[in-house]
Amino acid sequence: MHRGGTRSGRLTAVVTAAAGVLAVAVVGPAGASAVPARTHARLALSVAPVPLARWQLAETTGTTAHDDIAGRDGSVLGPVRLGQVAQGPTVTSYGFAGGRSSVAAPATGLVPSTRAVSAWVRLPRAPRPAGGSVLDLGSISVAVSRTRLAVSTCAVASPCATRLLPVRFADGAWHQLAASMSGGQVTVFVDGAPAGTALATAADRLPADGDVAIGRGFHGNIDRVTLWDRALTAGVVGTEFTNGACPQSDGPVPTTQPAPARPPALPLHTRGRFVVDANGQRVKLAGVNWYGADQLDHVPAGLQCQRVDAIAARIAADGFNVVRLPWATTTWSGKDKPVPPVAVAGDPSLRGKTARQVFDAVIASLARHGVLVILDNHVTRPRWCCSGTDGNGLWWEGYDPQHPPRWHQLGRRQRLHRFRVGEQRWLSAWRRIVRRYAVSGAHAQPMVVGADLRNEVRPDYTLGITPHWRRARGAPWADWPRAATRAGDAVLSVNPRLLVAVEGLQYAADLRGVARQPIRLARAHRLVYSAHDYSWTQSSHARLHRVLGRRWGWLLAQHQRLTTPVLVGEFGTCHPEECGGAEAAWFKALTRYLAAGDVDWIYWSINGTGGRGAVEPTTCAATLRFPGCGEGYGLSDPSWSRDVSAALMTELHPIIAATQGP
After folding, report:
1. What percent of the chain lies above the pLDDT cut of 90?
2. Most distant CA pair in the chain: distance in Å?
3. Is the CB of residue 382 less than 8 Å from the CB of residue 400?
4. Would the CA dihedral through 389, 390, 393, 398 be positive or negative?
């Protein structure tokens, strides 16, 4: 490790945390800074003081943590994991495992001119998070202990002075910490907003070993540690927070004025195999999924980068007329909670809002831009899906896969009780959400036109339950047509204007059970069946037309007893510029099928990045769909400012317009 230079006349900045205690301190180098060797477009603050030091902690190999400003490179010590996910696809973070893990950098040349420090941190989502030092510079510290923020100033000739402030960090989300000293006091900022102050009449204690210590004993992730030689204003800290939440972006897209909305005559209903408006005119549904509200942050992804109106305007400009919005049962059956500030950093109007309020704002924006909305109950417990072991495969069940219920040890009466409680929670959540957007609801929104009752009902291998399409036969906890009928009628009893989408079994790929047991809702002309299709659901693209015809295409034959609209609620592929072979052949075969039948469809997805779908994310290769990872099937670029693949849009545009009608 490099050492050198004088050790006198420095002001230090420290961030430490023990047993969930996070601490920040402020110290400063002498002399002007050099031009950064590595920068990210939105991390350079043109209106802010020039940083004295910046450790991006973005290395993916080696044992050196580079200082982009003045060359105070640090050495990686102990069990530090490099290349962990951070807030954007173009950056990574360090994962600290506690104990002896740390980064040590020389404090050479730091002088009392240092007046501010910031760092991004992510503490594990645990009842008692482990702690450790985030940044140790000796003179000022900001610490987090469970739900308390401790601010300390330390001088050579006197003990440290500490003040406790209420704040919560151990939620698994990223947070920005900043401490700025001016006029004898330290102002502490959390996620770009002032969180409190502490006296700092003297703060000149130097690190005993002459090193800046990052992550000493810390358990969690640290990213972008920065020092400045003067105090920061609230505006500068807020700008750094916004930039750091989406470092891959060059800036927000200008928010366009909503185009005059020309929605169809509402409400929609069905006629034969078509969806039609109130005047009987065909309304072909051609749109995109916008996921994220079904994930751990409870927010449609992308709002960390752009305003909601900017995203809605792009969706409309691309020619899409409907968005399928996934949501989680527990978001609408439990207590409504504020969302993490970082999840809405790109839209200041949403800061401090709850999950349901953000959902309201997203739907309202889509409506202003003339885009219809279908509500999709995607999961019970928020997180990425879908598998047979994720605890979300059944409409009535939702559990932590690490702690599954002892289903096999329960008697029939106990199983019935558990099933009925879970199904009632699901039905209650549906009643609450559709009532909210009904004409007489608290947030009346006629552009909410549909309810997709449950995403990809599938076998739960942990519980040993395989759902079936044989109503009133076998165990009720496996009877999907019975559940769909109950839920559809419950939805329509609250909001009779909605279309009700019922997905097939086997991850929504198979609707053959309809021939044996069709869904009969109490209100006619509201039923739509929904199917999903991906390359892995087909064994041969050459036989795709025949396979889909057997699975659900037969429902589109006009003037038959069971003729019903089919909405392909999910299908997606990698960007044509990046993939080919069997994947490309499957996608061309599917789009030809959709074009020939003029089938309604919703592509997966508009996303440029994911929602926070993993409790403890590691790398993008191991963590599916996270804000710090690009969405390989998405239509947006990672900054959510433009279409990412012209070739993919070229393949979708020809199947947007309707070619058939009643």
Report:
1. 70
2. 91
3. no
4. positive
